Amino acid sequence: QIFNQHNAKAPNLERAFHRMAQMEPNLDHDISWFLLPSYWAKMVVALISFICFANSYDGDFVFDDSEAIINNKDLRAETPLGDLWYHDFWGSKLSSNTSHKSYRPLTVLTFRINYLFAGGFYPVGFHVINIILHCTISVLMVDVFSILLGGLQFSNRGRRLNLAPKSSLLAALLFAVHPVHTECVAGIVGRADLLCALFFLLSFLGYCKAFRENKEGHTFSVFWVLVSVVLGAIAMLCKEQGITILGLNAVFDALVINKINLLELIRKLLYKGKVLENAGLFRKGLLFRITLLMCGGASILYIRWRIMGTGPPAFTEVDNPASFADSLFVRAINYNYYYSLNAWLLLCPWWLCFDWSMGCIPLIKSVSDWRIIALAALWFCLIGLICQALCSEDSHKRRILTLGLGFLIIPFLPASNLFFRVGFVVAERVIYLPSIGYCILFTYGFSLLSKQAKKKKILAVAVLGLLLINVMRCALRSSQWRSEEQLFRSALSVCPLNAKVHYNVGKNLADKGNQSAAIKYYREAVRLNPKYVHAMNNLGNILKERNELHEAEELLSLAVQIQPDFAAAWMNLGIVQNSLRRFEEAEQSYWTAIKHRKKYPDCYYNLGRLYADLNRHIDALNAWRNATVLKPEHSLAWNNMIILLDNTGNLAQAEAVGREALELIPNDHSLMFSLANVLGKSQKYKESEALFLKAIKANPNAASYHGNLAVLYHRWGNLDLAKKHYEVSLKLDPMAPGTKENYNLLRRKLEQLHKKGG
Predict the structure, then answer these.
(1) Which of 257, 353, 462, 608 could form a disulfide with 620 if both were Cys (CB 3.0 to 4.6 A apart)?
(2) In a 3-state reduction of DSSP, which class is residue 303?
(3) Inter-residue contact 146 to 140 (CB < 8 Å)
């Protein structure tokens, strides 16, 4: 309820007003908890939320961070800022068939600012911003919960009163230390959820400001309603869930500002003789404000639709198997089971996993599956809460339960599969906002228990213990998010049936050079999901490098059979076929890869190698030239062009290509070495020497660099320096081809010169 007093001259009026307001039903009357001034409460919440996630500040880029940040061209200065508005979260064009349609330009903009200020991809700055955002959101929660749990009331001076300081502090602490938030805070891509939550809360607080009576005596401010709509739009530009705040603002307006009894409203609307005024829809401008919210929301969605286009995102069965089920019954049962799992993560966030897809949660296909019990429990609780929210005679209870359920359910709707297919089964990040509703319901439940309990302090100690356990769980989970190895291995015990978990553990091991262990995990990933083409491709690659070519060919052939447009698998199949000397098949595989990915420099490079093996030199040069056009920093393609031209006697052309390459990649020592060889053969000894020395400075342990420089000195007649570099080369690699013979020739020549001199 909103009270406004205008007699500012009355002594102690504000204090008297506060006492009067506290006569309303209040959770704090029953809760045995800490009572702190608002400033100190916010300081405590900020400090504890910081402690929970502080150890993630120096973590690496992990999991989706690679695609959303490191491989995202939208972060680089050369990409025009305007492109952010036409690209998805991962840097792909929204018009592309492969786009996930996740439109979050403001989140990408913050990544870009992080990148520019850090001067590169240094994860510390990214992590620090995430931690600061969560602390800020947790502090804002103190104000939000004070309104949701205590009501919206202002003093005569227009200052909002906190009528539930104890319960709002408890709810804010529950939110701040909830372990399910770790993915959003410790995973950098969780920035989208954090920014969305920040503007989501600011939109709600802005809407509440609309009801502070102004000097003209108006009961609400249109300006603040519009500000709330704008902040909701900003929240949506950070992540899709942000748009739901407009619906929640409408619910809050109806329940708290207008004190509408939903059950009574439904009854009145059912009687034709009752007009809408009697239902309370025109009271205090409610219908006008809801119209503003609806028009604002519709405008935001229309603009987003115009930018994104109408095409749905392309997801696969492994991303969300229930959504591909033929039976409506199977889809409905599994969607509801997913809802129960999300509810369980809020209640007991002990088993957490970075990815819940790919067989982690097998489909329920019949009512005999024991997991049906989880659905029954979920709906039993929800129906019970809804009945109490609608039918209770206690208006305070109705308001809190309805707001709790509203904040629990409405922000979750975009992830519910009800309106469109989503690309995940369960995702911890999407319950960052719904956890607000959980905290409201938990705090209200705690107040009811406290009211009945004889020893309230024991109950308070139990809740304090729960908070402490959650803090420790957050710290532990944050440490697991610090590196991919820890993150992926932590998932093995939670989701042992998840093929993606085994795939990621294997990929991490392969990146570290442990191929034998990687093979084991890749094989398990393929066993768990026989259609997992990425696991087949990576396993085939390792087997190819270990010269197990026939098994590699079988795996890669199966991968392209399952997914015919898998360009990387076609290229790797071509490499294997080339190694098996089946050149025509290899060429066909390379061209198929290029057909499915037109800008594929690595494939052009490998195609060039095939043509070089077949002595089709012009075709090889053209293929490598295509690779360098698509990727100017493709050092291997440049090197192969220089070497081929050198070997075929085209020294002038080789020199021109070498100089062009070094202009583009000036610090590449392998290019310096190749060009130095060409210049030496062209008798440009001084320039050749300078490049050899520069290459050796960059890579002093390359035996071939010293050996070829020695050959240059040998030709040039600088025999002492030639002898020195031959010896260094042989020391680095005693088996270096040709070096020992050249060194022996030089020694004999030096001996002859010594005898003549003697």
Answers:
(1) 608
(2) helix
(3) no
